[in-house]
């Protein structure tokens, strides 16, 4: 039998939010490379179509779902469309997120609401829409993308860290709620990672990473590998875990 990891997710279907960029794109491509049919969600049609083309050219199956995610209807509509396209969704990766940095006193209510809308409300209602069907089938996996900054206090990162800390708690709550029905819910907690989203931070990303044992930022692929592990059968006894993929930043 082939040693290739293609058989890890044979016949499985996955929905990856924020699949048009960075960690989400690497995750969508890696899931597809291991046998999953992937719904790639995002707002940017051009980037979304490119990810689908890359997956298709490599022999995989994917479709792009344009979705501006911010509330319950947008989350449920995406989940419904993806499940309708592939018949069901076995793996949900809650990856789409925004990470504005800034002093508390300069944060507006609109900034506050936008961060919690995408980083907390949308995963909440995607899970509300998809997890019950996974539970009825008796299997499924949900992986939430949080952040190392949810585990410690950092100036100018409070709003972002708080939103992801909520997602960490939800990861554990959903593991308790859906785990007994065969749905594993876990999270990855990346440290500074090079993506389109962090490109504007330039050398500041290297400085943020320098405190960790790895002494460098991670790559999107390194985070994607951890997400795919948690979504796959080799993680069958892993429930409610938050896996740091941060070069050791939160360990020391
Ligand atoms: P990125 O390159 O900025 O990509 C963000 C993704 O989210 C894009 O695909 C974007 O899609 C999607 N998105 C943003 N707003 C959206 C909206 N309103 N509706 C639907 N989709 C939306 O980000 P990244 O660096 O890969 O980060 C991905 C996740 O990892 C985030 O949750 C982030 O908090 C987390 N994280 C990142 C790092 C890091 O250093 N990079 C560290 C820790 C945690 P469109 O542009 O197509 O809409």
Question: Can you describe what's shown?
Answer:
By secondary structure, the protein is of the alpha/beta class. It has one domain: NAD(P)-binding Rossmann-like Domain (Rossmann fold), CATH 3.40.50. Helices cover 44% and strands 17% of the residues. It is built from seven helices and nine strands. The strands form two sheets. The chain has a seven-stranded parallel sheet, sandwiched between helices. Strands 7-8 form a two-stranded parallel sheet. Helix 2 links the parallel strand 2 and strand 3. Helix 1 packs across helix 7, helix 3 runs parallel beside helix 4 and helix 4 packs parallel to helix 5. The longest helix is centred in the middle third of the chain and has 29 residues. The radius of gyration is 17 Å and the shape is globular. It starts with 12 loop residues before the first strand and ends in a 7-residue tail after the last strand. The N terminus is likely disordered. It binds NADP nicotinamide-adenine-dinucleotide phosphate. NADP nicotinamide-adenine-dinucleotide phosphate binds next to helix 1.
Give start-end ranges of low-pLDDT stretches. Answer: 1-7
Strand content: 15-25%
Q: How is the biggest beta sheet arranged?
A: 7 strands, parallel
- The share of residues in helices is 40-55%
Q: What is the H/E string? A: EHEHEHEHEHEEHEHE
Bound molecules: NADP nicotinamide-adenine-dinucleotide phosphate
Rg, nearest Å: 17 Å
What's the N-to-C terminus distance? 42 Å
Looking at CATH, the homologous superfamily is NAD(P)-binding Rossmann-like Domain
Tell me the count of domains: 1
């Amino acid at each position: 039998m082939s040693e290739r990891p293609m058989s890890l997710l044979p016949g499985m279907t996955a929905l990856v939010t924020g699949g048009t960029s960075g960690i989400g794109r690497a995750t969508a491509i890696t899931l597809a490379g291991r046998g999953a049919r992937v719904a790639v969600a995002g707002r940017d049609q051009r980037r979304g179509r490119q990810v689908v083309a890359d997956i298709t050219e490599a022999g995989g199956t994917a479709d792009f779902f344009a979705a501006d995610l911010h509330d319950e209807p947008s989350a449920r509509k995406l989940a419904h469309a993806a499940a309708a396209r592939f018949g069901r969704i076995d793996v949900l990766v809650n990856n789409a997120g925004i990470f504005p940095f800034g002093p508390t006193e300069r944060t507006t209510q609109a900034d506050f609401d936008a961060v919690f809308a995408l980083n907390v409300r949308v995963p909440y209602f995607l899970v509300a829409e998809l997890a019950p069907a996974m539970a009825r089938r008796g299997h499924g996996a949900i992986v939430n993308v949080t952040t190392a900054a949810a585990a410690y206090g950092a100036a100018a990162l409070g709003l972002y860290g708080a939103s992801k800390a909520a997602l960490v708690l939800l990861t554990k709550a959903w593991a308790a709620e859906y785990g007994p029905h065969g749905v594993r819910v876990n999270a990855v907690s990346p440290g500074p990672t090079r993506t389109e989203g962090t490109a504007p931070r330039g050398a500041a990303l290297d400085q943020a990473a320098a405190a960790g044992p790895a002494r460098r930022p991670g790559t999107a692929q390194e985070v994607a590998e951890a997400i795919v592990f948690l979504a796959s059968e080799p993680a069958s006894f892993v429930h409610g875990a938050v896996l740091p993929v941060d070069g050791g930043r939160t360990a020391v």
